[in-house]
Design a protein that fits this description.
heterotrimer, A mainly alpha (72), B mainly alpha (247), C mainly alpha (222), A: 72 residues, mainly alpha, 2 helices, 75% helix, rod-shaped, C: 222 residues, 84% helix, 0% strand, elongated
Chain lengths: 72, 247, 222
């Protein structure tokens, strides 16, 4: 361990602002990107599910055709 | 092993889904290890004090921004030649992550420059080329976003990526030449011999960024796959399967 | 082979002559942008002389890409491009002809006009000659690279701004060596190296650009 105290670590030899400024933005973006991706994916899946269900109902009501899920 | 089998989105989608958690785990392990080595173990730099520790963030981000462009151009070229849908999707999935790393490289470089050079921005050859690289990413993303037909968007983007990758060395050397001619604005980062622990921390952080980029781009590629092929049977099955699996 | 190129050039020049106003607009844009700079930075002759090469070159880059969105758009709309793609001569040659024609109506007039504007910035006779020479040698590369952007954005919404976004970053080497040649002359050092590199960029640009242009046109025509 290189540091003597926690405050030394945060001060980074008077360069704390620059070091932690870099760190914070990098960490934030690298967390934000996957979070946004996961959210977008969830929304997309929901939208598709709704669409598929609507299609299935439409298909079944007039002539009760086979659904695509019938295939194994 | 038949690699062509995985060239179809249908086969690749579940495979990528299984691989992503592993890449996340690797990214986390390498990231924590790299940060521990870089921020806790490595000694301060004689010339630059503690501010040099930005290197553990800046250098991996710069490397990744350049490397991702190369990989993107590789997939784009592959897609153009063999007409694989999958490789076009990979190219498209990589671009936002590459642009993010280019931005991070500029951001950390600027924050490093302030204590070291006394200025937020220097028209240094590397920073300037990185800025142009960011512009190239933005152009690629904007072109693909502007074209509605996905097939055309893929192939137009691929041509642009290839043109860009041919031009990057030319741009880099011209910027470097320009920078050495204008001595007044050039700044030389003191080349201090790097301690083994520093190098180790930097490589670990770079590996973490690499694994992160793979995980994120695979996740994005998966999303592009279902979006594009939403009318096919396999996407229907995958989507419904995941609905049952719970969220 | 040469016949195809000259035929395309002659046709494009004829069309351009019918729309002289477009050429004039681009040239006036160049004049206005350049003239705005002294108003922005102040009239001190020293400073103006210093920024002149860069200002003139940047304004030339912007002016040269103004006409790019129309490079293929008219032929695309009236179906001429489709016919050209179906005829036996390769589309690459057509692209080359188009690039040359574009240079003749955009780059060349800029090179001829630039020394006149350089006078406003107090450049010496030698520097003015170098400015014209550098623009003369460098602008064909701009037309070549620009044609790639024009072909890629053919028929795309917001094509005009998009072209700038795509190609301006790729213009940087030309800008660096072009403005560098003039600066070197102002500073009294030889501009030989700059001009050689500029010529290399132009040769590479004009020689290689037709392939991506033709590929992009084929994609747009599908």
């Amino acid at each position: 361990m290189y540091w003597n105290s926690l405050s030394d670590f945060f001060a980074m030899g008077d360069h704390g602002l620059y070091v932690w400024g870099s760190f914070a933005v990098m960490a934030a973006l690298m967390i934000l990107e996957p979070v946004l991706l996961a959210r977008g994916r969830k929304k997309l899946l929901e939208r598709l599910r709704r669409q598929y269900r609507a299609e299935a109902i439409e298909r079944e009501s007039p002539r009760r055709a086979g659904t695509p899920e019938a295939r194994p | 092993m038949n690699w062509y089998r995985f060239a179809s989105p249908q086969a690749f989608y579940p495979l990528a889904g299984r691989m992503i958690p592993w890449f996340w785990a690797l990214a986390a392990i390498f990231g924590i290890a790299g940060l521990v080595v870089g921020f806790l173990v490595a000694p301060g730099d004689a010339r630059q004090g503690e501010g040099y520790r930005i290197i553990f963030l800046h250098v991996p981000a710069s490397w990744m921004s350049m490397f991702i462009y190369l990989v993107m151009a590789f997939w784009a070229g592959l897609g153009l030649i063999f007409n694989f849908r999958l490789s076009h999707m990979m190219a498209r999935a990589l671009a936002p992550t590459g642009a993010m790393f280019a931005f991070l490289s500029l951001w950390t470089g600027s924050l490093w420059g302030k204590p070291m050079w006394g200025t937020w921005w220097a028209w240094d050859a590397r920073l300037t080329s990185e800025l142009i690289l960011l512009f190239l990413y933005v152009g690629f993303i904007a072109l693909q976003a502007a074209i509605d037909d996905p097939r055309r968007a893929d192939r137009a983007g691929a041509i642009l990526a290839l043109v860009g990758v041919v031009n990057i060395p030319i741009i880099y050397f011209s910027v470097k030449w320009w920078n050495t001619l204008h001595q007044g604005s050039s700044v030389n980062l003191a080349k201090s011999s790097m301690a083994a622990t520093m190098l180790c921390g930097m490589l670990l952080c770079a590996l973490a960024c690499w694994m992160y980029a793979i995980a994120v781009s695979l996740a994005r590629a998966r999303r592009i796959m279902i979006e594009r092929e939403k009318d096919t049977l396999w996407v229907r099955e995958e989507v419904m399967k995941e609905a049952k699996g719970g969220m | 082979m040469l016949r195809v190129i000259t035929a395309v050039i002659a046709r494009d020049l004829r069309l351009a002559l019918r729309r002289r106003a477009d050429i004039a607009a681009a040239l006036f844009f160049f004049v206005i942008v350049v003239s705005l700079f002294p108003l922005g930075v102040g009239p001190e002759p020293e400073r103006l002389r210093e920024i002149a090469p860069g200002v003139l070159w940047v304004a030339a880059l912007l002016a040269a890409q103004l006409s790019l969105p129309r490079l293929f758009a008219d032929d695309f709309r009236d179906g001429a491009l489709e016919q050209l793609a179906l005829t036996p001569p390769p589309l690459e040659l057509v692209a080359l002809g188009k690039i040359v024609a574009h240079w003749l109506v955009s780059g060349l007039p800029l090179a001829l006009l630039a020394p006149l504007l350089g006078l406003q910035f107090g450049l010496s006779g030698e520097a003015l000659a170098m400015l014209a020479a550098a623009l003369f040698i460098g602008t064909p590369a701009l037309s070549g690279i620009g044609a790639i952007g024009a072909a890629l954005t053919l028929g795309v919404r917001g094509g005009g701004v998009l072209v700038s976004l795509l190609i301006l970053p790729l213009y940087t080497p030309v800008l660096i060596f072009g403005a560098g040649a003039v600066e070197a002359t102002v500073a009294g050092i030889g501009a030989q190296a700059h001009l050689s590199l500029l010529a290399a960029l132009t040769l590479a640009g004009v020689f290689f650009a037709p392939w991506p242009v033709a590929a992009a046109l084929r994609i747009a025509l599908e």
